[in-house]
């Protein structure tokens, strides 16, 4: 099963975008706290980019601001591509399937 759940803060106010074929989406960076402290006793955070498609994109963009705390249920999607050196690389995207706004900063 390809499923992950994340809780964190929205880094910047997201924008609703549209593909050339009319699909709406938003790319959103969420800062997620790690479950452990580093050797200096500091809990670090990871900034993870999530993609919201179609029916999820607009309500999410309309409902959050920078700093809002959200939970997202996402699946990881991978794709292969060739870079400028003709090397095959693997890229990952987190596609949101469900979300909740836990603390609204509006």
TrEMBL record:
Keyword DNA-binding among UniProt keywords: yes
Domain of life: Bacteria
Any one biological process term the GO annotation gives: DNA replication
Pfam family, one: SSB
Keyword DNA-binding: yes
PROSITE patterns reported for this sequence: SSB (PS50935)
MF-aspect GO terms: single-stranded DNA binding
Keywords, sorted A to Z: DNA-binding
UniProt name for this protein: Single-stranded DNA-binding protein
Organism: Amedibacterium intestinale
């Amino acid at each position: 099963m390809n499923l992950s759940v994340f809780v964190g803060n929205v880094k910047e106010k997201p924008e609703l975008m549209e593909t050339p074929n009319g699909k709406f989406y938003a790319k959103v960076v969420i800062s997620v706290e790690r479950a452990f402290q580093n050797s200096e006793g500091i809990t670090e955070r990871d900034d993870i980019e999530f993609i919201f498609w179609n029916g999820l994109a607009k309500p999410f963009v309309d409902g959050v601001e920078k700093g809002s705390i959200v939970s997202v249920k996402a699946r990881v999607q991978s794709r292969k591509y060739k870079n400028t050196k003709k090397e095959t690389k693997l890229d990952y995207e987190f596609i949101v399937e469900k979300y909740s706004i836990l603390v609204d900063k509006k």
